[in-house]
Amino acid sequence: MEGDGVKGLACQKTMDGKASNGKAVPSCCLKAMACLPEEDAKCHSTVVSGWFSEPHSRSGKKGEAVYFNNPMWPGEAHSLKVEKVLFKDKSDYQEVLVFESATYGKVLVLDGIVQLTEKDEFAYQEMIAHLPLCSTPSPKNVLVVGGGDGGVLREISRHSSVEVIDICEIDKMVIDVSKKFFPELAVGFEDPRVQLHIGDAVEFLRKSPAGKYDAIIVDSSDPVGPAQALVEKPFFETLARALKPGGILCNMAESMWLHTHLIEDMISICRQTFKNVQYAWSSVPTYPSGVIGFVLCSTEGPAVDFKNPINPIEKLDGAMTYKREMKFYNSDMHRAAFALPTFLRREVASLLAS
Length: 354
Hints:
This protein has eleven helices and eleven strands. By secondary structure, the chain is an alpha/beta fold. A hairpin with a 4-residue loop joins β2 (95-101) and β3 (106-110). The chain has a seven-stranded mixed beta sheet, with helices on both faces. The chain has a four-stranded antiparallel beta sheet with strand order 1-2-3-4, covered by helices on one side. The radius of gyration is 20 Å and the shape is globular.
Protein backbone atom coordinates (compact mmCIF):
# COMPACT_ATOMS: atom_id res chain seq x y z
CA MET A 1 0.00 0.00 0.00
CA GLU A 2 1.78 3.02 -1.27
CA GLY A 3 1.20 6.68 -0.67
CA ASP A 4 1.81 9.88 1.21
CA GLY A 5 -0.90 9.35 3.76
CA VAL A 6 -4.60 10.03 3.47
CA LYS A 7 -4.11 13.03 1.22
CA GLY A 8 -5.66 12.20 -2.13
CA LEU A 9 -7.94 9.43 -0.87
CA ALA A 10 -11.59 9.56 -1.82
CA CYS A 11 -12.43 10.05 1.85
CA GLN A 12 -10.82 13.49 1.68
CA LYS A 13 -13.72 14.85 -0.36
CA THR A 14 -15.76 14.97 2.86
CA MET A 15 -15.43 18.00 5.06
CA ASP A 16 -18.21 18.01 7.65
CA GLY A 17 -19.00 14.39 8.39
CA LYS A 18 -21.04 13.96 5.23
CA ALA A 19 -20.04 12.73 1.80
CA SER A 20 -20.76 14.66 -1.36
CA ASN A 21 -23.94 12.61 -1.78
CA GLY A 22 -25.21 13.70 1.65
CA LYS A 23 -24.66 10.37 3.38
CA ALA A 24 -23.04 10.22 6.80
CA VAL A 25 -19.39 9.23 6.65
CA PRO A 26 -18.47 6.11 8.67
CA SER A 27 -16.42 6.68 11.80
CA CYS A 28 -13.42 4.89 10.29
CA CYS A 29 -13.22 7.48 7.53
CA LEU A 30 -13.82 10.44 9.86
CA LYS A 31 -10.85 9.17 11.86
CA ALA A 32 -8.67 9.11 8.77
CA MET A 33 -9.71 12.66 7.89
CA ALA A 34 -8.60 14.00 11.26
CA CYS A 35 -4.86 13.73 10.58
CA LEU A 36 -2.53 16.37 9.23
CA PRO A 37 -0.71 14.49 6.47
CA GLU A 38 1.76 17.29 5.78
CA GLU A 39 2.99 17.20 9.36
CA ASP A 40 2.76 13.44 9.76
CA ALA A 41 4.76 12.91 6.58
CA LYS A 42 7.85 14.36 8.25
CA CYS A 43 8.42 10.97 9.87
CA HIS A 44 9.30 9.51 6.45
CA SER A 45 12.76 11.02 6.68
CA THR A 46 13.78 8.73 9.54
CA VAL A 47 13.33 5.06 8.63
CA VAL A 48 9.69 4.52 7.75
CA SER A 49 6.53 6.14 9.02
CA GLY A 50 4.46 4.04 11.34
CA TRP A 51 7.24 1.65 12.24
CA PHE A 52 9.46 1.13 15.24
CA SER A 53 13.15 1.92 14.89
CA GLU A 54 16.29 2.06 16.99
CA PRO A 55 17.93 5.28 15.82
CA HIS A 56 21.60 5.99 16.40
CA SER A 57 22.79 9.21 17.98
CA ARG A 58 25.63 11.22 16.47
CA SER A 59 28.01 9.55 18.89
CA GLY A 60 27.08 6.18 17.48
CA LYS A 61 25.22 5.05 20.59
CA LYS A 62 21.73 3.65 20.29
CA GLY A 63 19.03 6.12 21.16
CA GLU A 64 15.69 5.51 22.78
CA ALA A 65 12.97 3.63 20.93
CA VAL A 66 10.78 6.00 18.95
CA TYR A 67 7.33 5.46 17.45
CA PHE A 68 6.28 7.34 14.35
CA ASN A 69 2.68 8.13 13.47
CA ASN A 70 1.43 7.09 10.06
CA PRO A 71 -1.36 9.20 8.55
CA MET A 72 -2.86 6.15 6.83
CA TRP A 73 -4.14 5.05 10.24
CA PRO A 74 -3.95 8.13 12.51
CA GLY A 75 -3.80 7.63 16.22
CA GLU A 76 -2.27 4.18 16.06
CA ALA A 77 0.89 2.52 14.80
CA HIS A 78 1.84 -1.01 13.89
CA SER A 79 5.46 -1.44 14.80
CA LEU A 80 8.25 -3.58 13.40
CA LYS A 81 11.74 -3.59 14.83
CA VAL A 82 14.30 -2.63 12.19
CA GLU A 83 17.41 -4.78 12.38
CA LYS A 84 19.14 -3.32 9.33
CA VAL A 85 18.30 -1.01 6.47
CA LEU A 86 19.25 -2.85 3.27
CA PHE A 87 18.23 -0.32 0.62
CA LYS A 88 16.87 3.21 0.46
CA ASP A 89 16.51 5.39 -2.62
CA LYS A 90 14.03 7.54 -4.50
CA SER A 91 12.72 6.60 -7.93
CA ASP A 92 10.93 8.99 -10.25
CA TYR A 93 7.71 8.12 -8.43
CA GLN A 94 8.33 7.22 -4.79
CA GLU A 95 10.74 6.43 -2.00
CA VAL A 96 11.76 2.77 -1.98
CA LEU A 97 12.99 1.16 1.22
CA VAL A 98 13.97 -2.39 2.14
CA PHE A 99 14.90 -3.39 5.67
CA GLU A 100 15.47 -6.56 7.65
CA SER A 101 12.96 -6.80 10.49
CA ALA A 102 13.28 -8.77 13.70
CA THR A 103 10.18 -10.93 13.18
CA TYR A 104 8.84 -10.60 9.61
CA GLY A 105 12.02 -11.05 7.58
CA LYS A 106 12.79 -8.53 4.83
CA VAL A 107 10.22 -5.77 4.34
CA LEU A 108 9.48 -3.70 1.22
CA VAL A 109 8.21 -0.18 1.86
CA LEU A 110 7.07 2.45 -0.65
CA ASP A 111 6.65 6.05 0.50
CA GLY A 112 6.50 4.92 4.10
CA ILE A 113 3.83 2.24 3.57
CA VAL A 114 4.59 -1.48 3.88
CA GLN A 115 3.97 -3.36 0.64
CA LEU A 116 5.04 -6.82 1.72
CA THR A 117 7.06 -8.83 4.19
CA GLU A 118 8.67 -12.23 3.70
CA LYS A 119 6.56 -13.71 6.50
CA ASP A 120 3.05 -12.87 5.27
CA GLU A 121 3.31 -11.88 1.59
CA PHE A 122 1.70 -15.13 0.42
CA ALA A 123 -1.63 -14.29 2.08
CA TYR A 124 -2.03 -11.32 -0.26
CA GLN A 125 -0.37 -12.66 -3.41
CA GLU A 126 -2.24 -15.96 -3.42
CA MET A 127 -5.66 -14.45 -2.77
CA ILE A 128 -5.50 -11.58 -5.27
CA ALA A 129 -4.37 -14.01 -7.98
CA HIS A 130 -6.46 -17.11 -7.38
CA LEU A 131 -9.77 -15.51 -6.42
CA PRO A 132 -10.21 -14.33 -10.03
CA LEU A 133 -8.35 -17.12 -11.86
CA CYS A 134 -10.20 -19.90 -10.06
CA SER A 135 -13.50 -18.20 -10.87
CA THR A 136 -13.13 -18.62 -14.63
CA PRO A 137 -12.55 -21.82 -16.64
CA SER A 138 -9.19 -22.12 -18.39
CA PRO A 139 -8.01 -18.49 -18.41
CA LYS A 140 -5.54 -17.84 -21.24
CA ASN A 141 -4.66 -14.13 -21.35
CA VAL A 142 -4.02 -12.32 -18.07
CA LEU A 143 -2.90 -8.77 -17.32
CA VAL A 144 -1.33 -7.56 -14.08
CA VAL A 145 -1.39 -3.83 -13.36
CA GLY A 146 1.34 -2.97 -10.86
CA GLY A 147 2.73 -6.01 -9.10
CA GLY A 148 6.35 -5.07 -9.67
CA ASP A 149 7.55 -7.35 -6.86
CA GLY A 150 6.62 -10.37 -9.00
CA GLY A 151 4.52 -12.18 -6.40
CA VAL A 152 1.29 -12.09 -8.38
CA LEU A 153 3.16 -13.35 -11.45
CA ARG A 154 4.46 -16.26 -9.39
CA GLU A 155 0.92 -17.22 -8.47
CA ILE A 156 -0.53 -16.82 -11.98
CA SER A 157 2.17 -19.13 -13.30
CA ARG A 158 0.56 -22.00 -11.37
CA HIS A 159 -2.24 -21.98 -13.98
CA SER A 160 -1.05 -24.05 -16.93
CA SER A 161 -3.96 -22.88 -19.11
CA VAL A 162 -2.55 -19.34 -19.14
CA GLU A 163 -0.69 -18.57 -22.35
CA VAL A 164 0.20 -14.88 -21.95
CA ILE A 165 0.88 -12.92 -18.77
CA ASP A 166 1.24 -9.19 -19.45
CA ILE A 167 2.42 -6.97 -16.61
CA CYS A 168 2.44 -3.18 -16.68
CA GLU A 169 4.49 -1.61 -13.86
CA ILE A 170 5.28 2.09 -13.80
CA ASP A 171 8.32 1.97 -11.49
CA LYS A 172 11.29 -0.09 -12.70
CA MET A 173 13.09 0.42 -9.41
CA VAL A 174 10.49 -1.72 -7.63
CA ILE A 175 11.22 -4.58 -10.04
CA ASP A 176 14.99 -4.24 -9.68
CA VAL A 177 14.78 -4.10 -5.89
CA SER A 178 12.54 -7.14 -5.75
CA LYS A 179 14.88 -9.17 -7.94
CA LYS A 180 17.77 -8.33 -5.62
CA PHE A 181 16.13 -8.64 -2.20
CA PHE A 182 13.00 -10.77 -2.77
CA PRO A 183 13.98 -13.51 -5.25
CA GLU A 184 11.23 -15.79 -3.93
CA LEU A 185 8.70 -13.29 -5.32
CA ALA A 186 10.66 -12.04 -8.34
CA VAL A 187 10.84 -15.63 -9.60
CA GLY A 188 7.53 -14.76 -11.24
CA PHE A 189 9.41 -12.75 -13.87
CA GLU A 190 11.28 -15.87 -14.99
CA ASP A 191 8.18 -17.47 -16.51
CA PRO A 192 8.52 -17.32 -20.33
CA ARG A 193 4.84 -16.42 -20.62
CA VAL A 194 5.51 -13.08 -18.87
CA GLN A 195 5.73 -9.97 -21.04
CA LEU A 196 6.93 -6.94 -19.06
CA HIS A 197 5.83 -3.41 -19.96
CA ILE A 198 7.35 -0.49 -18.04
CA GLY A 199 5.04 2.49 -18.12
CA ASP A 200 1.68 3.99 -17.25
CA ALA A 201 -1.12 1.43 -17.04
CA VAL A 202 -3.79 3.84 -18.24
CA GLU A 203 -1.88 4.50 -21.45
CA PHE A 204 -1.04 0.80 -21.87
CA LEU A 205 -4.71 -0.18 -21.63
CA ARG A 206 -5.78 2.52 -24.06
CA LYS A 207 -3.53 0.92 -26.66
CA SER A 208 -4.60 -2.66 -25.86
CA PRO A 209 -7.10 -4.41 -28.17
CA ALA A 210 -10.66 -4.60 -26.90
CA GLY A 211 -11.64 -7.93 -25.40
CA LYS A 212 -8.08 -9.21 -25.09
CA TYR A 213 -7.96 -10.49 -21.51
CA ASP A 214 -9.76 -13.24 -19.61
CA ALA A 215 -8.68 -11.65 -16.33
CA ILE A 216 -7.05 -8.44 -15.14
CA ILE A 217 -5.49 -8.19 -11.68
CA VAL A 218 -4.86 -4.68 -10.38
CA ASP A 219 -2.16 -5.06 -7.73
CA SER A 220 -2.09 -1.35 -7.08
CA SER A 221 -1.03 0.60 -4.05
CA ASP A 222 -3.25 2.99 -2.13
CA PRO A 223 -5.03 5.50 -4.39
CA VAL A 224 -2.58 8.34 -3.94
CA GLY A 225 0.31 9.61 -6.05
CA PRO A 226 0.86 7.57 -9.23
CA ALA A 227 -2.01 5.23 -8.27
CA GLN A 228 -4.67 7.95 -7.95
CA ALA A 229 -6.07 7.39 -11.45
CA LEU A 230 -6.46 3.66 -10.79
CA VAL A 231 -9.62 4.10 -8.68
CA GLU A 232 -11.51 6.48 -10.95
CA LYS A 233 -14.41 5.61 -13.26
CA PRO A 234 -12.55 6.19 -16.57
CA PHE A 235 -9.92 3.63 -15.56
CA PHE A 236 -12.52 1.00 -14.68
CA GLU A 237 -14.22 1.64 -18.02
CA THR A 238 -10.87 1.11 -19.74
CA LEU A 239 -10.37 -2.13 -17.82
CA ALA A 240 -13.84 -3.37 -18.82
CA ARG A 241 -13.10 -2.61 -22.47
CA ALA A 242 -9.94 -4.74 -22.33
CA LEU A 243 -11.78 -7.74 -20.91
CA LYS A 244 -13.54 -10.47 -22.90
CA PRO A 245 -17.28 -11.05 -22.40
CA GLY A 246 -17.54 -12.57 -18.95
CA GLY A 247 -13.97 -11.44 -18.22
CA ILE A 248 -12.91 -10.84 -14.63
CA LEU A 249 -11.30 -7.93 -12.79
CA CYS A 250 -9.76 -8.27 -9.33
CA ASN A 251 -8.76 -4.98 -7.70
CA MET A 252 -7.17 -4.33 -4.30
CA ALA A 253 -9.85 -2.61 -2.20
CA GLU A 254 -8.56 -1.34 1.14
CA SER A 255 -9.43 -2.33 4.73
CA MET A 256 -12.96 -2.75 6.02
CA TRP A 257 -11.81 -1.42 9.40
CA LEU A 258 -10.42 1.85 8.09
CA HIS A 259 -11.94 2.85 4.76
CA THR A 260 -15.52 1.64 4.38
CA HIS A 261 -16.43 4.87 2.66
CA LEU A 262 -13.71 4.35 0.08
CA ILE A 263 -14.85 0.75 -0.42
CA GLU A 264 -18.39 1.96 -1.04
CA ASP A 265 -17.11 4.48 -3.59
CA MET A 266 -15.18 1.79 -5.45
CA ILE A 267 -18.09 -0.63 -5.52
CA SER A 268 -20.49 2.09 -6.67
CA ILE A 269 -18.17 3.01 -9.55
CA CYS A 270 -17.73 -0.64 -10.53
CA ARG A 271 -21.48 -1.27 -10.52
CA GLN A 272 -21.84 1.43 -13.18
CA THR A 273 -19.44 -0.46 -15.45
CA PHE A 274 -19.59 -4.18 -14.66
CA LYS A 275 -22.38 -6.75 -14.62
CA ASN A 276 -21.38 -8.51 -11.40
CA VAL A 277 -19.52 -6.91 -8.47
CA GLN A 278 -18.49 -8.67 -5.25
CA TYR A 279 -16.27 -7.88 -2.27
CA ALA A 280 -13.87 -10.35 -0.62
CA TRP A 281 -11.19 -10.01 2.02
CA SER A 282 -8.13 -11.66 3.49
CA SER A 283 -5.97 -11.46 6.58
CA VAL A 284 -2.53 -9.91 6.13
CA PRO A 285 -0.96 -9.04 9.52
CA THR A 286 1.36 -6.24 8.35
CA TYR A 287 -1.28 -4.29 6.41
CA PRO A 288 -3.19 -1.55 8.26
CA SER A 289 -5.71 -3.21 10.62
CA GLY A 290 -4.46 -6.65 9.56
CA VAL A 291 -6.91 -7.17 6.69
CA ILE A 292 -7.14 -6.21 3.03
CA GLY A 293 -10.08 -6.32 0.65
CA PHE A 294 -10.62 -7.10 -3.02
CA VAL A 295 -13.31 -5.98 -5.43
CA LEU A 296 -14.09 -8.66 -8.02
CA CYS A 297 -16.08 -7.75 -11.13
CA SER A 298 -17.16 -9.43 -14.35
CA THR A 299 -18.29 -7.97 -17.65
CA GLU A 300 -21.43 -8.77 -19.63
CA GLY A 301 -21.30 -12.29 -20.97
CA PRO A 302 -21.13 -15.77 -19.43
CA ALA A 303 -22.22 -15.66 -15.79
CA VAL A 304 -19.50 -15.74 -13.15
CA ASP A 305 -20.06 -17.25 -9.70
CA PHE A 306 -17.24 -15.71 -7.68
CA LYS A 307 -18.21 -17.42 -4.45
CA ASN A 308 -17.79 -20.98 -5.74
CA PRO A 309 -14.55 -21.66 -7.64
CA ILE A 310 -15.31 -23.28 -10.99
CA ASN A 311 -11.60 -23.81 -11.64
CA PRO A 312 -10.41 -25.18 -8.25
CA ILE A 313 -6.69 -24.91 -7.65
CA GLU A 314 -6.58 -28.39 -6.10
CA LYS A 315 -7.57 -29.96 -9.44
CA LEU A 316 -4.89 -28.19 -11.48
CA ASP A 317 -2.01 -30.57 -12.05
CA GLY A 318 1.02 -29.48 -10.02
CA ALA A 319 -0.44 -26.08 -9.14
CA MET A 320 -0.27 -26.51 -5.36
CA THR A 321 3.50 -27.06 -5.42
CA TYR A 322 4.64 -25.10 -8.52
CA LYS A 323 7.72 -22.94 -7.68
CA ARG A 324 6.85 -23.33 -4.00
CA GLU A 325 4.03 -24.90 -1.99
CA MET A 326 0.93 -22.80 -1.50
CA LYS A 327 0.53 -21.55 2.05
CA PHE A 328 -2.79 -19.70 2.28
CA TYR A 329 -5.26 -20.06 -0.58
CA ASN A 330 -7.49 -23.09 -1.11
CA SER A 331 -11.07 -23.57 -2.25
CA ASP A 332 -12.43 -23.33 1.28
CA MET A 333 -10.61 -20.01 1.82
CA HIS A 334 -11.98 -18.85 -1.53
CA ARG A 335 -15.58 -19.37 -0.46
CA ALA A 336 -14.97 -17.96 3.02
CA ALA A 337 -13.45 -14.75 1.63
CA PHE A 338 -16.89 -13.55 0.52
CA ALA A 339 -18.48 -13.92 3.97
CA LEU A 340 -18.84 -10.34 5.19
CA PRO A 341 -19.27 -9.19 8.80
CA THR A 342 -22.56 -7.52 9.69
CA PHE A 343 -21.08 -4.09 10.34
CA LEU A 344 -19.56 -3.99 6.86
CA ARG A 345 -22.83 -4.97 5.18
CA ARG A 346 -24.58 -2.27 7.21
CA GLU A 347 -22.04 0.52 6.58
CA VAL A 348 -21.44 -0.31 2.95
CA ALA A 349 -25.02 -0.20 1.73
CA SER A 350 -24.24 -1.09 -1.86
CA LEU A 351 -23.04 -4.52 -0.72
CA LEU A 352 -26.57 -5.40 0.35
CA ALA A 353 -27.52 -5.58 -3.32
CA SER A 354 -25.03 -8.42 -3.90
